[in-house]
Design brief:
By secondary structure, the protein is an alpha+beta fold. It folds into two domains: 27-170, Mog1/PsbP, alpha/beta/alpha sandwich (Protein Transport Mog1p, Chain A, 3-Layer(aba) Sandwich); 176-223. It is built from four helices and ten strands. A hairpin with a 2-residue loop joins strand 8 (130-140) and strand 9. The longest helix is centred in the C-terminal third of the chain and has 25 residues, at 174-198.
């Protein structure tokens, strides 16, 4: 089986200009195509770019980017090419090499049962400004998600870790929630059929049960979160 050199979203980071007007209200961004949701400081700019594996196989990468208050937030994803596997080590090496940076730290993380990697890198732009790059990679059901948070090192403050945590920890892959809901719905359908027989097709009782089942499903959907570090998903 071939191994793909992990394609990484390259941020050619220059000195980011601070905005005069600052808005503290973040938004919950949902990507139906990407099957994920994440909290961002504003509506992202959506784009694509073409990349290639070490063997020259082309693939499309999809990204959502926000540049705000001296920071860059970017969520990207791409699907596995048949016959390839994703390498976290090559992803790390590729990103560090691309920005000509220095690896500061690295840790193994997960998104539910899916593996992940978290790295922090320091790098200089062409103008000589130092940037801190914080990235997380997740390999989820033949799709790779890449989250990046970049800030000028000189702008690093007490609020930086809080903003990074708010962004990273909010990331959820929606198909996990949908799968959970579908499992619960199947269980309730079986229960519904058994109860229908026991109630001798009492339409009123079935209606009450259906309403109750729907309420329970909503509770499951709202309460089952997806952790972006080592938190497990049922």
């Amino acid at each position: 089986m071939k191994k793909a050199v992990a394609p990484i979203f390259l941020l050619l980071v220059c000195a980011v200009v601070a905005f005069a007007v600052q808005d503290s209200a973040w938004i919950n961004y949902n990507s139906a195509e990407g099957r994920y949701s994440v909290v961002l400081p504003s509506q992202p700019e959506i784009g694509t770019q073409e990349s290639a594996t070490a063997d020259g196989v082309k693939l499309i990468q999809y990204k959502a980017t926000v540049v705000k208050d001296n920071a860059v937030f970017m969520v990207g994803y791409f699907d596995h090419i048949p016959g390839t596997t994703f390498s976290f080590d090559k992803a790390r090496d590729g990103l560090v090499s691309a920005v000509k940076g220095t690896l500061l730290s690295e840790s193994t993380i997960s998104l539910g049962s899916s593996p992940g990697r978290e790295i922090k890198v320091v790098a200089k732009s062409e103008q000589g400004a130092e940037h801190l790059l914080h990235a997380r990679f997740f390999d989820v059901d033949k799709r790779v998600y890449v989250l990046q948070y970049v800030i000028l090192k000189s702008e690093n403050s007490n609020t930086t870790p809080a903003n990074a945590a708010k962004y990273f920890d909010s990331f959820k892959v929606l198909n996990y929630l949908l799968a959970k809901r579908n499992i619960d719905a199947t269980r309730y359908r079986h229960y519904n059929r058994r109860r229908a027989q026991s109630l001798n097709n009492n339409a009123f009782s079935l209606q009450i049960f259906a309403q109750h089942a729907g309420h329970v499903l909503r509770i499951h959907l709202c309460s089952d979160g997806v952790g972006s570090t080592a938190a497990a998903v049922d």
